[in-house]
Amino acid sequence: MKLLKLVFAFMFCLIAMQTNAQKRKNIKPNVLVIYTDDHRFSGIHALGGMEVKTPNIDRLVDDGVAFTNTYLMGAFTGATCIASRAMLLSGRDLFKLEGQGRVIPSEHATMGETFKKAGYNTHIVGKWHNDNKSLVRSFDSGDKIMGRGVYLVDHFRMPFWDWDKSGAFKKEDAYLLTYDDNGKEIRRALTKEDKRGPIGTELDGPHTSEVFARHAVQYIKKKKGKKPFFMYVAFHAPHDPRQAPKEYRDMYNPETTNLPPSYMPQHPFDNGHMFLRDEELAPWPRTTGVARQHLADYYAIISHLDHQIGKIISALKESGAYENTLIVFAGDSGLAVGNHGLIGKQNIYDEDGIHVPFVLSGNLIKDKGRKIDALSYIHDIFPTVCDITNIDTPISVNGKSLAPVIENETAQVRHETYHAYKQFQRAYRKGDYKLIEYVRANDLHWKYGEQITGSRVTQLFNIKKDPWETQDLSFFPENKELLLKMRNEMKEKALELGDKKENIEGEKYDFWNFFY
Ligand SMILES: [Ca+2]
After folding, report:
1. Are 511 and 439 within 8 A, CB to CB?
2. Distance from residue 414's CA to the centre of ligand 1 (Å)
3. What's the CATH code, domain 415-516?
4. 405 CA → ligand 1 middle, Å
5. Distance from the CA of 516 to the center of ligand 1, in angstroms?
6. What pTM was estimated for this model as a whole?
7. CATH 3.30.1120.10 occupies which residues in the chain?
8. Cα of 85 from ligand 1 centre, angstroms
9. According to the model, what pLDDT value does residue 1 have?
10. What residues are paired with 462 via a beta bridge?
11. Which of 38, 143, 190, 262 is the least crowded, having the fewest Cβ atoms under 10 Å away?
12. How close is the Cα of 396 to the center of ligand 1, in Å?
């Protein structure tokens, strides 16, 4: 009898242990995705080693893995944000988007929607640059939404929307957060007197980065219930206007800020899209003084952003959620800020256009502090996050998971990358080299109508030795064979990806019709 009791007790223990293990397994990790705007790879100190100060993001790098070769595939509009966000959120490549990324149709499962179906509470704070329908089907809730059709070009006077589950996000529902005469923050509707900026300062109202961080923190603090959370925090910084409070501007002296090796006063040829709002932010030629000022301002808004990100991470730690949260940090595009004589991101040079930071951080990541050079795209982030959190990747995703690289099962999941900017530029990267081809092509200007811009130019860079793309090697006779090989492989890749206007909704021109 005694023996029987012992056996029963032992079995009971076994069952109890099993259920506990099961319970632990069932506690899904929270996911926090932080997406920054126009934040190039070298805009993080721990990644590029430049003088920009980013202690909080550096800590995320130390406490996780950083991918040093993640890229935006490209875009067909000057607002590369649109395509970038559609690729991040749907996990699909540039040639498999709808309306050049403006719309994420219901057959393309979004990241938020996928986590919602997997039992998560999904929440958004900040910028949304795609359609309203995909916004509301992705999240259970949200706060301080921006980018729904009213914009004042001012980080200190940003129109925000409350969460609107109907998906209307009416223009008249937008409001500003401003300080009253006593310095108290108030909320007020926009009026006709609210002119386009940038004219605001820290005396007028809170900066977008402060607002988004504060509301992300509030969500973490108030979160109730047993469901894990998926929070998407889409900052607008460091997108221009490059505004930051004085204490951050004071951190950088524009007279001594070092320009990267690719600084040039003027781009050496017409790349097809030289004159648009981003490029018009600075006069031509971009003197060293102008470029240094832009770079100092860029670093200042990044350091201010970094400080706000630090507040979100602290809130995670204070709430106890940090232990069980996967933190995903990425930027949506590069930015030239004086490189190659350019200011914007409408190009496919690395730092100037397509090289972005991508970091996975927190306790779920083992072997912390690694830097992984596997080639990857922004649309690989979604399947990677699914794999790490044990969520099934939707079939509509065509990005590749980097989980096998993180687990040390393989060194690469891609052997080359392909990039496109409108009908003017294409790039192909493989091994140590990157080929960029430019064409002279027709274009339909919104104001001037049909015109012809661009130049037929080839550039070949040894991207390993020359990451800033300063020395074009395409002219050297010894590179002729390599150049032809790269060009042929690029054409094959274009066919494989379906790079033709028929696959890019609304596109009138085809790069390949102008290429010879
Ligand atoms: Ca952007």
Report:
1. yes
2. 24
3. 3.30.1120.10
4. 27
5. 31
6. 0.95
7. 415-516
8. 9
9. 52
10. 433
11. 190
12. 24
Question: What is the rounded average pLDDT for all residues in the chain?
Answer: 95
Other Cβ atoms within 10 Å of 132 Cβ, number: 17
Q: Tokens standing for 89?
A: 């959120």
pLDDT > 80? residue 509? yes
Distance 214 CA to ligand 1 centre (A): 22
The full 3-state SS of 207-243, as one line of letters, equals CHHHHHHHHHHHHHHHCCCCCCEEEEEECCCCCCCCC
The confidence score (pLDDT) of residue 4 equals 57
What is the CA(35)–ligand 1 centre distance, in A? 10
399 C-alpha to ligand 1 centroid (Å): 20
Q: What is the pLDDT of residue 20?
A: 44
Decide: residue 411, CB within 10 A, 0-12 exposed, 13-18 middle, 19+ buried: exposed
Q: 84 CA to middle of ligand 1, Å?
A: 8
Please report the pLDDT score of residue 2 as a whole number.
Answer: 58
- CATH architecture group of domain 29-412: 3-Layer(aba) Sandwich (3.40)
pLDDT for position 7: 57
Residues bordering ligand 1, an ion, CB closer than 5 Å: 37-38, 81, 332-333
* 2 CA → ligand 1 middle, Å: 72
**Residue spans in the chain of domains classed CATH 3.40.720.10:** 29-412
* Residue 130: both structure tokens together: 């795609």
Strand partners, 67: 358, 372
pLDDT given for residue 19 in this prediction:
45
Identify the CA nearest to 298 among candidates 234, 251, 361, 366.
251
